Each structure stands twice: as structure tokens, then as C-alpha cells.
């Protein structure tokens, strides 16, 4: 059904002082589950509330409080898994990951180490027309988010807010199948797009609702193929984990820096120490978080407060039956049904709202024309004004009306742009606005011919020049259109001018 | 499995329990004793027996996704040694 044949992109190669190196990247994405209340308590997940107001006694880990799981969060995890074509585990279980930090009142995070709810899946990451990397997803598990510490409000104290404590997260773990900084950013972009289509995570990276831990290692060319053949990590280099990236730009910078740092150490005869690092965007470098390292003994054990999570296949099937059309399918359909280019189809399917808008404009019309108007005029204008597609002043119906007027030849492309401006600022029905403003291109051959004759007769010198240099015919076209008050259909004028001048 | 003094020290540190150096040997011996006692369970053949997670035939209880709790800031903060403007205030922790 879907034509998803593609070529595999080349890995990023960095030339060291001694020889070439390749990058190997795996990612852990933390995606906040879109839900009203928390994973194990009835407190709200709303952002921007007063500190510590969206907190229940369960979240504050008061003695004797017990977690009760939010059914919708389970559904969201299953939906996400299905969206990544992943295996759904009908039986999963929760474990405690133990560590002390001021933003973790329980002293442990409830997570799913041993039996995650979602097993192996995949994400197709496009790197250009017909070029894509299939990144394997190892698992998705549900876990609690931690609270938030603020360090800059007081010189000696840190301030802690538990509003985010206990909000449900999906940790989406990839295999080390990503081969460069740009691929890493493209992977996050694609994953974010899928989750937003599914409605399981809003993907807001600025708020930290989607953040990535990036595992980076380097190896000599040829080693990665040995890993793929055997799945034996011994063929790969030692990795370092860059924590908490929530910007694509910084992520690519951090990966590039980290790879070069590792290469320099290795070429110098040194060894990479597996550790957690933090990217400092101001200095453009990663640095070790050694202080946290020594506490990395999480002593996982099954959470005694929660029975295993058992779900029925029938329920999974029900969720599967309500899955929306996903980005790959939508893109393929746009290309097939509307004749869009790969590029246009990518732009129009990036966001669900924009895709829906385009489809409303394109339905029953010329898809290519609709795509041009949506991408060039509408998106261009929305970007310029900083307005989102959901707040567009020109509805899909209105834009469709403009496209109809062009298609029927009633208005020229130039008039359509003016009309778009008017609809944008004043609203109205395109056909009515065009009629009221006398926007109608002249397609009457006789009238245009008369205007062409008149201009030719009045400008004998220009006629001479144009006969010598046919490129100057454009001057006549412009004059004729001007003489008709901008209403003469440009294509017809052009044809008549060429004919009359005998070019 | 026996717990040596280093392991006892590490476990105490991870649990944020202060144990004086001279108390570690006794603690290590005690912990080893407990583990030794538990190890007797390994003598039981549990081949093919599914691990039991509960003594009652219950399933994990679930709740609907509704906001039913929260908005109790003053009660949440009540036991805190120090608070500022609705936040818990703790000694500076920064990487």
C-alpha cells in the first residue's frame, strides 16, 4: 500500500588527525504524556500554576499514601507504541529506581525497568527525497517525572516546586541506529511529529515536555557494520550520555562537539570513560557531571505498591481501531492524490492542523495550485506575522475560493495576491470581494488586441528595438496591462504582443 | 552472599544513613546474616512456578483521568523546614 522504498543515508564521517571516524548515536526521549491528571495521583498536570499547588499527598510522598494508576496514561502509552509499529506487552510491571535529590520527594522514581509496556518498534527518519534511516526503537516505558528546582532566586538556597512531580512520562529508547548529528535531530523531529499526530504528547520542547538524552560514541569505519551483523556492542566505542537536550540546534552542536572530544582522546592514545555529560550552550562544550555519577547505583526493585499491569488484547485492538492516519501514510497519500512533490508533501504534513487545512483547500481543486497557495502565500504570511495555522484569518474555504477564481480564469495571479491581502485583513467571500472591487481580468481577445495595437502604434521607436531584441517584448506586455488597469490576462497579452510584433 | 565493610559503607551512603566507621563491621556481619538466612530460599525448587506478586486475586486498580486532588499548597508545605513564596527552600543544589 505504502511505497516506502528508500536508500540508507551515509553515516557522518569526521576526519581525525590520524584517520576517519564514524558516529554512533542512541537516544532516550522523555515525552510527557498528554493527560489531565498525573500518573499515580489526581493532581492536575496544567503548567503555569502556583508552585506546589498541583500536588497531592501521593506526589509529596506523604507516609501511607498509595499510588493508583491513571488508565488514560496507559492508553496513551499503548497508542504511542502502536504509532511506532511496536509490540505491546499485555503484562508489564513497575519498579522503583532509588536515588536522592531534592526534586524527588519519594526518594525513588516509579519506572518500568524489567517489563516495559511497549516493546520493539521503529521510526522511519527521512533525510531527503528517497533517503531514510529506519531507527529501531527498543522499548517505551511509563514513569514519573521529577519536580523542578530553581537555583537563581536566592544566593544560598534552591527552590523546589513539585507541580511536575508524578506527571506521566514515556521514555522512548532507541537502538544505536542514528549515525550523525543531523540524523539525531531528524529522529527527534519525526518522533515528535508522530506523537503529536497521535495526541499522546504535545511535543513542547521549550517547556521540557519532550527532551532527549543522547548517547554518543565513535568508531572506525567498518565497525558499525560488524555491530549490526552481530548486535554485539563490543564492536562499538564506549559511549557518553549527554543529558537533557531540549533544543535541536544545541543537540546537533553537542553531538558534534562530543564526537570530536572523543576522537581527540582516542587518537591521543587515551580511553573514553563512560559517563554522563551536560552541554553548555554558552561555551559550546560538554562537561562531565561526575558529582551525579557516584550516586548511579539505583538499586531497582519491583514496586511493592503496584501490582503488575495487565491489559487485554481486545482493549489494545480498540485503541488500534481509533488510530489516526500517521505522517508517512499522509505524506504518501498527498503525493499520490494531489500530485505533490516530496518537499511540498513534507511541509504540508509536518503539522496535523496544517495538513488538515491543506486538504480542505485541495479537495476538489488542483492539488499543486492549492499547495502553492497554502505554502507560499498562507504559510509565508503566517510566519511573517507570527500567527499559527489554527488562528489564521484566512480560512480554508476562503483560500479555496481564491484558488477557484484563478482556476476559472476570472482573476490573474497578481489580482489573487491582492485579493488574498484583502481577505486577510478584512475578511469576506473571495468571489463577492473580487466582484465588488472590479477584480476581473479581461480575457476578451478583441479588447486586448485593441489595447496592443494602440501601444504598438504609439511607440514606433520601441517597436524597432523589440524587433532587434525580442527580450524587450516584455515592455509592451507591461504597457498593455497597465493600459487595461491591470485587468488584461497576462498570458493572452503576451501571446498577442509576440504575434503583432512578428517576433 | 556476604556483605563486607566496604559494601556496608556504600549501602549506608546510598541510603543517606550516617554510620560511624567503628560500627561498620558489626553492621556488615548483621547484613550478611540476614542475607544468609534469605539464601535458604534458594534451596527450594521453583522451576516452572510463576512468581507470585500478590496473595489476593486482585488486578491493578485504575482510575479515570480526572483532576480530583491538589490545590492544597499550604498543607503540602506545612511540614517543610523552610519555604519561600510557595516553594520548598533547600540548601543550594546545583551542578
Automatic annotation (TrEMBL), chain A:
Pfam families: GatB_N, GatB_Yqey
Any GO MF annotation of the entry: glutaminyl-tRNA synthase (glutamine-hydrolyzing) activity
Reactions it catalyzes: L-glutamyl-tRNA(Gln) + L-glutamine + ATP + H2O = L-glutaminyl-tRNA(Gln) + L-glutamate + ADP + phosphate + H(+); L-aspartyl-tRNA(Asn) + L-glutamine + ATP + H2O = L-asparaginyl-tRNA(Asn) + L-glutamate + ADP + phosphate + 2 H(+)
Coiled-coil features, chain-numbered ranges: none
Record key words, sorted: ATP-binding, Ligase, Nucleotide-binding, Protein biosynthesis
Domain of life (superkingdom): Bacteria
EC number: 6.3.5.-
Asn/Gln amidotransferase domain span: 356-501
Biological-process GO terms, alphabetical: glutaminyl-tRNAGln biosynthesis via transamidation; translation
Transmembrane segments: none
Family as reported in the entry's similarity comment: Belongs to the GatB/GatE family. GatB subfamily.
Subunit: Heterotrimer of A, B and C subunits.
Role description: Allows the formation of correctly charged Asn-tRNA(Asn) or Gln-tRNA(Gln) through the transamidation of misacylated Asp-tRNA(Asn) or Glu-tRNA(Gln) in organisms which lack either or both of asparaginyl-tRNA or glutaminyl-tRNA synthetases. The reaction takes place in the presence of glutamine and ATP through an activated phospho-Asp-tRNA(Asn) or phospho-Glu-tRNA(Gln).
Alphabetized HAMAP family for the sequence: GatB
Name the UniProt record assigns to this protein: Aspartyl/glutamyl-tRNA(Asn/Gln) amidotransferase subunit B
Organism the protein comes from: Szabonella alba
UniProtKB/TrEMBL annotation, chain B:
Name recorded for this polypeptide: Aspartyl/glutamyl-tRNA(Asn/Gln) amidotransferase subunit C
Subunit text: Heterotrimer of A, B and C subunits.
Biological process, per Gene Ontology: glutaminyl-tRNAGln biosynthesis via transamidation; regulation of translational fidelity; translation
Reaction catalysis annotation: L-aspartyl-tRNA(Asn) + L-glutamine + ATP + H2O = L-asparaginyl-tRNA(Asn) + L-glutamate + ADP + phosphate + 2 H(+); L-glutamyl-tRNA(Gln) + L-glutamine + ATP + H2O = L-glutaminyl-tRNA(Gln) + L-glutamate + ADP + phosphate + H(+)
NCBIfam families: gatC (TIGR00135)
EC top class named in words: ligase
Record-listed E.C. numbers: 6.3.5.-
Protein family according to the UniProt entry: Belongs to the GatC family.
Keyword terms of this UniProt record: ATP-binding, Ligase, Nucleotide-binding, Protein biosynthesis
Amino acid at each position: 500500500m505504502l511505497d516506502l522504498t528508500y536508500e540508507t543515508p551515509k553515516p557522518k564521517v569526521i576526519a581525525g588527525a590520524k584517520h576517519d571516524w564514524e558516529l554512533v548515536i542512541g537516544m532516550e526521549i522523555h515525552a510527557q504524556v498528554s493527560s489531565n491528571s498525573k500518573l499515580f495521583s489526581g493532581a492536575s498536570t496544567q503548567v503555569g500554576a502556583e508552585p506546589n499547588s498541583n500536588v497531592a499527598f501521593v506526589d509529596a510522598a506523604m507516609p501511607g499514601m498509595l499510588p493508583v494508576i491513571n488508565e488514560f496514561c496507559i492508553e496513551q502509552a499503548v497508542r504511542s507504541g502502536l504509532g511506532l509499529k511496536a509490540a505491546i506487552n499485555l503484562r508489564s510491571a513497575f519498579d522503583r529506581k532509588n536515588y536522592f535529590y531534592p526534586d524527588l520527594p519519594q526518594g525513588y522514581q516509579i519506572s518500568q525497568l524489567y517489563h516495559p509496556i511497549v516493546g520493539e518498534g521503529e521510526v522511519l527518519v527521512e533525510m531527503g527525497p528517497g533517503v531514510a534511516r529506519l531507527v529501531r526503537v527498543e522499548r517505551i516505558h511509563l514513569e514519573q517525572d521529577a519536580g523542578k528546582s530553581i537555583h537563581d532566586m536566592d544566593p544560598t538556597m534552591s527552590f523546589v516546586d513539585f507541580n511536575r512531580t508524578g506527571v506521566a512520562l514515556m521514555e522512548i529508547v532507541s537502538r544505536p541506529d542514528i549515525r550523525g548529528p543531523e540524523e539525531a535531530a531528524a529522529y527527534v523531529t519525526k518522533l515528535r511529529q508522530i506523537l503529536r499526530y497521535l495526541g499522546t504528547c504535545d511535543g513542547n520542547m521549550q517547556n521540557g515536555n519532550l527532551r532527549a538524552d543522547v548517547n554518543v560514541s565513535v568508531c572506525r569505519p567498518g565497525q558499525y557494520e560488524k555491530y549490526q551483523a552481530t548486535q554485539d556492542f563490543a564492536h562499538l566505542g564506549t559511549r557518553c550520555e549527554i543529558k537533557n537536550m531540549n533544543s535541536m540546534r544545541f543537540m546537533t552542536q553537542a553531538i558534534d562537539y562530543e564526537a570530536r572530544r572523543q576522537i581527540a582522546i582516542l587518537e591521543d592514545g587515551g580511553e573514553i570513560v563512560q559517563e554522563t555529560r551536560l552541554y553548555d550552550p554558552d561555551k559550546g562544550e560538554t562537561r562531565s557531571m561526575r558529582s551525579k555519577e557516584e550516586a548511579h547505583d539505583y538499586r531497582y526493585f519491583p514496586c511493592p505498591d503496584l501490582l503488575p499491569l495487565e491489559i487485554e488484547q481486545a482493549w489494545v485492538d480498540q485503541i488500534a481501531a481509533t488510530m489516526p492516519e500517521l505522517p508517512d501514510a499522509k505524506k504518501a497519500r498527498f503525493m499520490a492524490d494531489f500530485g505533490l512533490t516530496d518537499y511540498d508533501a513534507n511541509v504540508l504534513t509536518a503539522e496535523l492542523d496544517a495538513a488538515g487545512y491543506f486538504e480542505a483547500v485541495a479537495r476538489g481543486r488542483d492539488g499543486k495550485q492549492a499547495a502553492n497557495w497554502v505554502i507560499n502565500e498562507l504559510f509565508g504570511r503566517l510566519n511573517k506575522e507570527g500567527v499559527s495555522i489554527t488562528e489564521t484569518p484566512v480560512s480554508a474555504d476562503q483560500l479555496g475560493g481564491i484558488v477557484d477564481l484563478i482556476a476559472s480564469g476570472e482573476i490573474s495571479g497578481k489580482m489573487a495576491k491582492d485579493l488574498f491581502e484583502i481577505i486577510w485583513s478584512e475578511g469576506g467571500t473571495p468571489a463577492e470581494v473580487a466582484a465588488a472591487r472590479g477584480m476581473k481580468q479581461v480575457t476578451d481577445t478583441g479588447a486586448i488586441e485593441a489595447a496592443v495595437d494602440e501601444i504598438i502604434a504609439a511607440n514606433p521607436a520601441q517597436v524597432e528595438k523589440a524587433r532587434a531584441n525580442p527580450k524587450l517584448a516584455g515592455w509592451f506586455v507591461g504597457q498593455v496591462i497597465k493600459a487595461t488597469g491591470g485587468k488584461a490576462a497576462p498570458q493572452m497579452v503576451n501571446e498577442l504582443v509576440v504575434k503583432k510584433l512578428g517576433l | 552472599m556476604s556483605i563486607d565493610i566496604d559494601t556496608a559503607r556504600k549501602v549506608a551512603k546510598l541510603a543517606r544513613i550516617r554510620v560511624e566507621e567503628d560500627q561498620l563491621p558489626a553492621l556488615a556481619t548483621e547484613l550478611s546474616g540476614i542475607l544468609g538466612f534469605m539464601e535458604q530460599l534458594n534451596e527450594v525448587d521453583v522451576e516452572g512456578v510463576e512468581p507470585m506478586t500478590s496473595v489476593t486475586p486482585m488486578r491493578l486498580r485504575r482510575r479515570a483521568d480526572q483532576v480530583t486532588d491538589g490545590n492544597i499548597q499550604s498543607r503540602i508545605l506545612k511540614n517543610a523546614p523552610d519555604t519561600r513564596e510557595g516553594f520548598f527552600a533547600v540548601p543550594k543544589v546545583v551542578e
